């Protein structure tokens, strides 16, 4: 939920009553967001895990080799016919 700021010459406006506060209170969602943020904060980045880094490099190498093979198979210049050489 985005915070909404209101700047007016009349002041801050009215305070929410207890019924409105209870309607938006959800401790389960707050606990879930805290757990998720805590787990993501301490996770190692992908480039620092040796096995994941090797798998990523293998995928990049295979993609590069496949693209080179496709590039060699597609000949940009068609072979010249004997009539075109004269």
Overview of the structural elements:
There is one protein chain. With 86 residues, the chain is mainly α. It has a domain at 20-73. It contains four helices and no strands. The longest helix is centred in the C-terminal third of the chain and has 24 residues, at 50-73. The protein is elongated, with a radius of gyration of 31 Å. 0% of the residues are buried. The model has no long low-confidence stretch (mean pLDDT 78).
What best-fitting shape do the alpha-carbon axes yield? Answer: elongated
End-to-end separation: 76 Å
Proportion of strand residues: under 5%
Total E-strand runs? 0
- The overall pLDDT, averaged over residues, is 78
The residue fraction in helices comes out at: 55-70%
Q: Enumerate how many helices there are, as a single number.
A: 4
Order of helices and strands: HHHH
List the helices and strands and how they pair.
Elements: H1 18-24, H2 27-41, H3 50-73, H4 82-85
């Amino acid at each position: 939920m985005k915070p909404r700021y209101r700047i007016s010459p009349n002041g801050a406006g009215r305070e929410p009553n207890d019924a409105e506060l209870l309607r938006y209170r959800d401790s389960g969602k707050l606990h879930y967001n805290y757990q998720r943020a805590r787990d993501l904060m301490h996770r190692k980045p992908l480039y620092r895990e040796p096995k994941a880094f090797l798998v990523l490099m293998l995928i990049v190498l295979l993609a590069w080799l496949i693209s080179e093979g496709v590039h060699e198979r597609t000949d940009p210049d068609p072979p010249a016919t004997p009539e075109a050489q004269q």
